[in-house]
C-alpha cells in the first residue's frame, strides 16, 4: 500500500545538476505530467510483440499532433518520424521499445494490467514487466520537447518506436533487425543512436553506463526428448522422457561450469520452460524444454551450442530415448556494444543530469537487447536509468521480468532529462573529425 501511495503522489522534480541545460529542465517539467499519464495508460493496456497496435496508434497520433509525419506499420507495428531542426547539424536517432511480456502482474498499483492472452498454449496475463511502457512514454515526451525547440535545433532527429524487442511470435520476423531490414536507416543514416532502459538493479536517481560490450548476446534453444508412452505403474513398458529430460537439464549445467573458461568472459545457460505429460499416471511420449544462452564471445557462443546439442543427444540416448536439439532455434541478438568514444563523450552529459556520483558503471550485464542491431550500424550509446525506489535495496527488489516489477516514476523524469541532455549536447557540439 505504501508503494501505491508513493505512486499517487506528484513526481518530485529532480534537482538540477551543475551544467544541465536550462532548456532541458524546463522541457522535462513541461511534459512531466503527460509522460506519467502516458506511462500509466500504456501500462494498463500492454501488448505483446508485433501486436502493439494500440500503443503504436497512440504514438502515431501524438507525433501527428506535433506536426510530424510518422511512418507506421514498419516491422508490423513500428513507428518512425524525423524532426528537421531549424539549423544545420548532425543526424541522430533515439529509440524506444513498445512490447510487453506474457507475465501476470502482481505489483500493487492502481493501473495494474488486467489483460490476458494465450501464450504457447497457456493462459497468462500480459504486463509491462520490463519497463517498455516507460521507454515509450519517455521518448514521447522527448519528441514533444524537441519539437518545441525546433527553430533553434541544429540537425535532424529520427524517433524510433520499435515493436518486439522481447522477440516476435514464433514464425514471424520483428524487432530492431526487421526495422533495419525494412530500411529505416536507408534514407536517414544517423551519426549516432541513443537508447535507455529502466533497470531494477539501480535506485531511482542513478544512471548506469558501461563502455564497450555492455549486454550479452542472447540465443534461444529448444530440446525435445522423445520416449515411448506407457502407464505410470509400468515404467519398464516404455521409455520415460521425463527422467531423461531431467538428466539432460542436470548434465547441461556442466556445459558452463566445466567446459567454458568463465575467467575469460561470463556465460549463462538457463532452462526457462519444461512441458511434458498431461496426467499423473501416464508417462508421456515426449518432453519439450526451452531456454536461453547468454555470451559475450563468439567462439564461446558456438562452443556452447555444440556442447548443448551433444549433451542432449547423448544423455537422451543413454536412457534409450532420443533428443532433437535446435540450438539455437531462432536468430538471436548480438552483443550490445557501447561505442567507446561516444560513451566517453556523452558521460559528462549524463553526469549533468544526476550528478557525477550518481552515474555508475554496472559492468557487464547478462541481459540482452536488440538495440545491438542499431549499434552495429552506427555508433551507439545505451544506458540504464534506475527504477527501484530510494531506500529499497536494488539487489533484493523485484527484477525486470518479475510479476512484481515496480517502477519509481521519478525515473521517467530522469529518463526525459537524460535523453534530452545527451541529444542536445551531441547536436550542438558533434564530434570533430
UniProtKB/TrEMBL annotation:
Give the note describing cofactor binding and stoichiometry: The Mn(2+) ion enhances activity.
| Requisite cofactors | Mn(2+)
Q: Domain of life of the organism in this record?
A: Bacteria
Where along this sequence does the record place binding of Mn(2+)?
130, 132, 166, 197, 401
Instruction: Report the InterPro entries cross-referenced here.
Output: Amidohydrolase (IPR017439), Bact_exopeptidase_dim_dom (IPR036264), Peptidase_M20 (IPR002933), Peptidase_M20_dimer (IPR011650)
Annotated Peptidase M20 dimerisation domain ranges read: 220-316
Pfam families, alphabetized: M20_dimer, Peptidase_M20
Q: Which UniProt keywords apply?
A: Hydrolase, Manganese, Metal-binding
Annotated GO molecular function terms are: hydrolase activity; metal ion binding
Instruction: Specify whether Nucleotidyltransferase is a keyword of the entry.
Output: no
Q: Indicate whether Flavoprotein appears among the record's keywords.
A: no
Family membership, please give it: Belongs to the peptidase M20 family.
Under the heading PANTHER family, the entry gives: METALLOPEPTIDASE, PUTATIVE (AFU_ORTHOLOGUE AFUA_6G09600)-RELATED, PEPTIDASE M20 FAMILY MEMBER
Q: What is this protein called?
A: Amidohydrolase
Q: Which organism is it from?
A: Marilutibacter maris
